[in-house]
Amino acid sequence: MSNIDQIPVRVTAIKQVAPLIKEFTLEPQDGLLTPFSPGAHIVVEMVSTGSGTDKHSYRNAYSLMSDPLDSRQYRIAVRLQDDSRGGSVYMHQQVEVGTQLKISPPANLFAPEWMAKKHVLFAGGVGITPFLSYLPELQQRQAEFELHYMYRSKQTGAYSAELQENLGSGCSCYDADLGNRCDIAAVMSGQPLGTHFYICGPEALIDAVRATADGMGVPASAIHWEEFAGAKPGLPFVVELSRSGAELAVAADSSLLETLESADINVPNLCRAGVCGQCVCDVAEGEVEHRDSYLSDREKQSGQVMMPCVSRAAGDRLVLDI
Ligand code: FES
After folding, report:
1. How far apart are the CA of 145 and the centre of ligand 1, in A?
2. Which phi-psi region, left, alpha or beta, contains residue 178 (left: φ > 0; alpha: ψ -120 to 50)?
3. Distance 201 CA to ligand 1 centre (A)
4. What's the farthest any 2 CA atoms get from each other in the chain?
5. Are residues 257 and 312 in contact, defined by beta-carbon separation less than 8 angstroms?
6. Pocket of ligand 1, candidates 227, 255, 307: which has the most ligand atoms within 8 Å of its Cβ, to mutate?
7. Phi and psi angles of residue 59, each rounded to the nearest 5 degrees, phi first
8. What is the pTM of this model?
9. Relative to the CA of 272, which ligand 1 atom is closest?
10. Which of 104, 249, 265, 321 could lock onto 282 through a cystine, CB 3.0 to 4.6 A?
11. Which of 113, 114, 110 is nearest to 141 (CA)?
12. How far is the CA of 168 from the centre of ligand 1 (A)?
């Protein structure tokens, strides 16, 4: 998000909804927020307290889980990540009711395919959040759907009771801490022609559903997924911008995109997770450690382009053609 796109909001409620998940309600400083489409996300900018080099800003994408038509507030849920660069720790430990944050306008890379005959939703842990924003419209359209929600109650089992109450037999919950597992192949087989499948959760769940779909001959166009893995930490390096000659230090826990943004260099971006292709940058020199799932193997091998939201230098220096 460019700085002019940023919307100032205030945290008006925080709920611990599972041992590792907190839910945050965000309200605008003034006026109303824009309605959004089901499956949309926002980017939250967090500036940690501290001064000088201790001051750190993170920008993480979170799915909106509130009713898309409710412009008074947005709600997001944040899982405390095991390998957090600091963003989820900041949200869990430093954000309080009254904290002011800046967010991007909503963007959507995971909208339902409304032409589908039926919608089958697979959620893993905090991956339930985009589906919570699907539900009002699925219900209002009287669309045929079923939700399969996998979690560990000792860590991430938020909203399961409400969902079961709201959806009845339309929601199947699988608590791995109780030994309950979802038989993905059994769920997928026997669905009517024209069913679309949606997955949000850990990479392993996405891979498992995609592999099952592949084995069953489900067309790729009927499979939709959203990973919520953002940038991961790495070794620090220096990036040089060839057009201005400027040099920026990319810290171990900052992404290259965040570093560029902190220097007021706006790079278009949507997912901040290496999947949408928006942030592509030309590389003039240096080796890249590609961590995205957008570029083809050939593009990665060419060494000429990279996705700075997740990818980093493979060495201690990189020159970008910007
Ligand atoms: S912002 Fe989507 S790939 Fe980088």
Report:
1. 30
2. alpha
3. 18
4. 61
5. no
6. 307
7. -130, 115
8. 0.87
9. 1
10. 321
11. 114
12. 37
Joined together, the tokens standing for residue 227 give 């990973």
Beta-carbon contacts of residue 72 (< 8 Å; ≥ 6 apart) = 27, 32, 33
Cα–Cα distance measured from residue 220 to residue 152, given in angstroms and rounded to the nearest whole number: 29
* The pairing of beta strand 247-250 with beta strand 40-48: unpaired
Q: Which residues are within 8 A (CB) of 229 and not within 5 positions of it... i.e. 6 or more apart?
A: 202, 203, 273
List the pLDDT tens digit at each of the 322 positions of the chain: 555 578 999 999 999 999 999 999 999 998 899 999 999 999 999 876 655 555 677 888 999 999 999 999 999 999 998 766 778 889 999 999 999 999 999 999 999 999 999 999 999 999 999 999 999 999 999 999 999 999 999 888 899 999 999 999 999 999 999 999 999 999 999 899 999 999 999 889 999 999 999 999 999 999 999 976 677 889 999 999 999 999 999 999 889 999 999 898 989 988 888 988 999 999 999 999 999 989 999 999 999 999 999 999 999 999 999 9
Provide, for the chain, the percentages of residues in helix, strand and coil under a 3-state DSSP scheme, each rounded to the nearest 5. 25, 30, 45
Task: Locate 273 and state its tokens.
Answer: 């997770």
Residue 83 has φ and ψ, to the nearest 5°, of: -110, 40
- Residue among 46, 82, 42 nearest 65 (CA): 42
Six token digits for residue 179: 């030994």
Residues with CB under 6 A from ligand 1: 269-272, 274-279, 292, 294, 307, 309
Shortest-distance atom of ligand 1 to CA 268: 1
Say how many Å lie between the CA of residue 311 and the centre of ligand 1. Answer: 10
Tokens 């939201």 correspond to what residue? 309
The secondary structure of residue 38, as a DSSP letter, is T
Q: What distance in Å separates the CA atoms of residue 74 and residue 54, rounded to the nearest whole number?
A: 29
